[in-house]
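From the pipeline queue, job 12 of 40. The input is one protein chain; the requested action is below.

Action: predict structure.
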Amino acid sequence: MSRPQNRAQAGALARAAAMSGAVDLSGLKERADAERSRAAAPQRPPAAPPSGQDAGAADGTAAVPPIVEITEATFESEVIARSDQVLVLVDLWATWCGPCKQLSPILERLAQQADGRWILATVDVDANPRIAQAFGVQSIPTVVAIAAGQPVSAFQGVQPEAQISAWIDEILGKVGDRLTGLPTTAEAPVEEPGDPRMEAAGALLDEGDFDGALEAYRALAQEDPSNLEAASAARNIEFVVRARAHDPAVVDAAAPGDVDAALAAADVLLLNQQPEAAFDRIIEVVRVTAGDDRARARERLLSLFELFDPAETFVVAARRKLASALF
């Protein structure tokens, strides 16, 4: 892997940590691929607002459009973050899906009539497969309601307009008081100023100064233990720096019983977006060793788990394997 690629990956790791506290090793490349796919794929024509109404009209209507097209790159900001303000209905569809062509116009019409009470986020599952995978979608159309960052309800297939409207009203009745509401043109959102020290650390990372960025993030985390963003960024950079230092050939060349080589191979596998294989390497070390070697391998595995959302399926599976290997 070239130095520019490593730099971009490290930046992506730190940004992911800042947003969610979890590293997505494949995120940078896959988001770019998804954007290219979306540009090449046939797109659903944007729905026009009702006559005489603009999504950002000066009469106080919601400044956010009632219908937004979502990609893997914009999912975090346009769905997860937005759902703290307003209910977001995610419409998972595809150009080849006949029922989708029946359901989508109904959802778009309802969204235009919602007056900002909720918004519709449309997702082409062919161009954005990771979003569909994240929701465990088995058939389309599927509509998922997101509030305060969490899925709260869903349905599949074509439903009558009245039934969908009643479903939305029921959800809003349960979660509406937990949402802050959309910003309006008369009430533009005020962006909180960022911590200049965090911005300086991020600038060092963007410049490729891993050591300087790591030192800065560590200092911020030590000074303020509640600064989870800095602590998570430091963990991510530590991993990338350590993994880049290994010879990639160690994956195939590691001798049986060489604990250091096995741990290095796990780092390389993880950097190459193979978390299951990386975890299995270390779990095998735990299984066949004892004493300090076993303790060291266990601690390394636990530190790698911290780079991911603990709910990731491969993390959950690896924790089970680790428990089996230990006991």
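Job complete. The first strand starts at residue 67 and ends at 70.
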